[in-house]
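Hey team,

Filing this mostly as a record. A colleague (T.K.) asked me to run one chain through the structure pipeline before their review meeting, and I want the input and output archived in the tracker in case anyone asks later how it was produced. No errors, nothing strange. Just documentation.

Input sequence:
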Amino acid sequence: MAKKRPICLSCNSYCVSWGKTTSGKKRFRCPRCFQTRGYHITKSKTDFFALFRQYVFWGHTYEQVSDQSGYSIQYLSIQFHIFLKQLPPVLPIVPQVSAFLLVKYNIKMYIGIR
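Output structure:
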């Protein structure tokens, strides 16, 4: 998945890579207005468990999940196998409650008396 180039805040054109700052961060330069800026590109963590739920519960295929998330099918299968190898969570033990079903019959109909 390719990284997106930042957009200039003053003229809305795409910036190009323009070296590094003294702290080591990447610097970008706008080819239209010639302003330089250091952009902090944040990486959002992908919730693979949400993608796994789409695959298991909603019946999405690897291709559909791949198109939605941008990851390759091979990478998704590796991530999903991590969830498949885990043991299922232990369910809490609920004390059993005795329940009775009371049914009232018409005795005359039951015995066969008319």
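Quick notes for T.K.: Residues 17 and 99 are 72 Å apart (CA to CA). Residues 48-85 form one domain.
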